[in-house]
Amino acid sequence: MRNQQTLAAPITCSGIGLHSGQPVTITLRPAPTNTGVVFVNRNGKSGASLPASIEHLVPTELCTAINGNGFQVKTIEHVLAALSGLGVDNVYIDVTAGEIPVMDGSAVPFVRLINSVGLTLQSRRQPYLKIMAPIEVCDGQKRVRIEPSSTPKITYTIHYNHPMIKTQVYTHDCSAATFEHDIAEARTFGFMHEVQALWARGLGQGGSLENTVVLSENGIMNESGLRFSNEFVRHKVLDLIGDFSLLGMPFIGHLIAERSGHALHTRLVEQILEQPEKWILLNTESASAESRKSLPISRSQPAVALQAS
Ligand SMILES: [Zn+2]
Questions:
Q1: What percent of the chain has pLDDT over 90?
Q2: What is the whole-number distance in angstroms between the Cα of residue 237 and the centre of ligand 1?
Q3: Which residues contact 234 (CB under 8 A, 6 or more apart)?
Q4: Which residue positions form the known binding site for Zn(2+)?
Q5: Residue 181 designated active-site
Q6: Which residues are annotated as a binding site?
């Protein structure tokens, strides 16, 4: 366990939103201890801030989005995965539009930017949430569960009736080095028929073979091929790391997911926070651990429908 970390200097990147297709620039800036990850609206003069926490989650199947304080940010999961994967605890993310740029569909562009400036170790300890008893959520055949473990681990299983995927199982021992080496480069994927259906609904406007592995009936459309033979399940691990960071602090436990997706990932986060008898906080500054347990969920938050823009 370590102290909190932030970026050593600001970093910026620009691209288009996967769903909106609109240009957007994000700037990640160093932030003081106990800030967490906070989005800042730089579309116009508002300057409003929105913490990346589960209480601001907007229900959506296609991506992870948060809404509050007069703005929303969609498709936050890949940049959150990069921050969580590398151990960036405190950061402001200025956004000029309502969706994080998709870049190449993976987390590696964000990882390279973060590594280009490096991290600063801060003066406060970083608390960890250690799971003491299993917690599970399921929806039909989809399920995600967290069990006690001495180290953070993720095991993901996916099943698709497609010759390039079939059944893929992957276990990730969480560390900055393994995240960068094994997970960060895995790209978003989608089936051609799904992609066409999304376009028909006005979504996925920024999707292309530059940022999505598109599966045809028997293969993939991308001429450059796959980055890993099991890139699909690795991307699911990436998404889970990003979604799970809405917990607000690193976890110690074994996350086990099968056929899952954003909605179920975030439901598990909610369930964990609603069952404080099943976890403890480690590495806190003082004996005030109990006070952190009143964090971050608010059931009174009304669900706001995601507006496609
Ligand atoms: Zn993803």
A1: 83
A2: 9
A3: 170, 182, 183, 186, 228
A4: 78, 235, 239
A5: no
A6: 78, 235, 239
Q: If you ran DSSP here, which 8-state letter would residue 58 be given?
A: E
Decide if domain 3-125 falls under CATH 2.40.30.20: no
Q: 150 CA distance to ligand 1 centroid (A)?
A: 27
pLDDT category of residue 287 using cuts at 50, 70 and 90: low
For domain 128-292, say whether CATH 3.30.1700.10 is its number: yes
Which of 19, 172, 262, 265 is the catalytic position? 262
pLDDT at 265 (0 to 100): 96
In this predicted model, what pLDDT tens digit does every residue of 137-157 receive, in sequence order? Answer: 999 999 999 999 999 999 999
Q: How far is CA 44 from the centre of its chain?
A: 26
Give the pLDDT confidence of 64-76 residue by residue, as tens digits: 999 999 999 999 9
Residues of the chain with CATH 3.30.1700.10: 128-292
E strand segments, 54-191: 57-58, 65-68, 71-73, 91-95, 119-125, 128-131, 135-139, 142-147, 153-160, 166-173, 189-191
The rounded distance, in Å, linking the Cα atoms of 253 and 297 is 20
- CATH 3.30.230.20 range(s) for the chain read 3-125
Cα 31 to ligand 1 centroid, rounded to whole Å: 26
pLDDT at 303: 35
What pLDDT is attached to residue 45? Answer: 79
